[in-house]
Design goal:
This protein is α+β, with helices and mostly antiparallel strands and about 280 residues long. It has ten helices and twelve strands. The strands form three sheets. It has a seven-stranded antiparallel sheet with strand order 1-2-6-7-5-4-3. A hairpin with a 2-residue loop joins strand 3 and strand 4. The termini are far apart. This is Protein kinase domain-containing protein.
């Protein structure tokens, strides 16, 4: 593993087969007992505190030394066919550090996303390892899929245009800083009411994302269509449920908000309409 890919504000701690990469700020905040809890994550298989952040089941952690702050633990898994065979056994050791790098770039550019606190890596044998990502809980949020299922709340319907606009702007800002989200999905977009009638939009689960110098129209179009496929799949599966309706007009509103005043991005709209 190339140690230089770890930011200077992270520490590396070791205990047996476990390596803990932790943000120095939290290394100082956490008691020795709480640090040991992170080292012992692979010993604790309690599922009673499972929560969902995005599409992944996560474990919530309450640390005594952090008072009211909650941490969220997510396991790294293989997706698709390999996931059924290899499950959480990994060999590409740079994978968690790539996600850390993209998340740090996003946060530096004021893109709302996961704040990674620690990476917990367990060596198995040879190049094989398991890995857990520890992040700060994003409080009082609901993902887009859950939001669409809450169609019984008239307030959501009344604010649908505003939500669509804020989501489009958040994705556009992510693309503008060169981040391509390989799994842009309804579950990976979180909405957080601010209390003054507006919303914050968090885009999470940047595990397979990549950071480019810039993202061209083709990649932007591909990313938007990935989100659209997620929406269409949701609509098919939720056809017998009272979900908040998403119409073609809503899709046009999304694209107009995404394009904004960027006349060059009109090609994205034209390409989208041809599909």
């Amino acid at each position: 593993m190339k140690k230089e890919i770890l930011p200077a504000y992270f520490s590396t701690l070791n205990k047996g087969k476990i390596t803990l990469y932790i943000r120095k700020e939290y290394e100082e905040k956490l008691s020795k007992q709480d640090i040991n809890i992170l080292f012992d994550l692979y010993k604790n298989s309690d599922e009673s505190n499972t929560v969902y952040h995005g599409r992944s089941p996560c474990k919530s952690l309450l640390m005594d030394s952090l008072e009211n702050e909650v941490l969220v633990v997510r396991d790294y898994w293989h997706g698709g066919f390999f996931g059924k065979i290899l499950r959480d056994y990994l060999w590409q050791r740079l994978r968690p550090f790539r996600e850390l790098s993209v998340c740090e770039i996003a946060n530096e550019r004021h893109i709302l996303t996961t704040e990674i606190i620690a990476i917990v890596m367990k060596n198995i044998v040879g190049p094989l390892y398991k890995c857990k990502l520890v992040s700060k809980e994003i409080t009082d949020t609901v993902d887009l899929m859950e939001l669409l299922l809450r169609s019984d709340k008239n307030s959501l319907l009344a604010r649908k245009r505003q939500i669509i606009s804020e989501v489009a702007k958040a994705i556009k800002e992510m693309h503008d800083v060169g981040i391509y989200h390989a799994d842009l999905h309804l579950k990976n977009i979180l909405i957080q009411p601010t209390g003054n009638g507006t919303f914050k939009v968090y885009i999470i689960d940047l595990d397979k994302s990549r950071q480019f110098g810039e993202i061209g129209l083709n990649r932007r179009r591909k990313n938007i269509l990935r989100l659209d496929r997620s929406l269409e799949k949701f609509k098919r599966n939720a056809s017998d449920r009272k979900a908040l309706p998403v119409t073609n007009t809503d899709k046009m509103r999304f694209l107009r908000a995404y394009i904004g005043t960027d006349s060059e991005s009109k090609e994205t709209l034209k390409s989208y309409l041809k599909t």
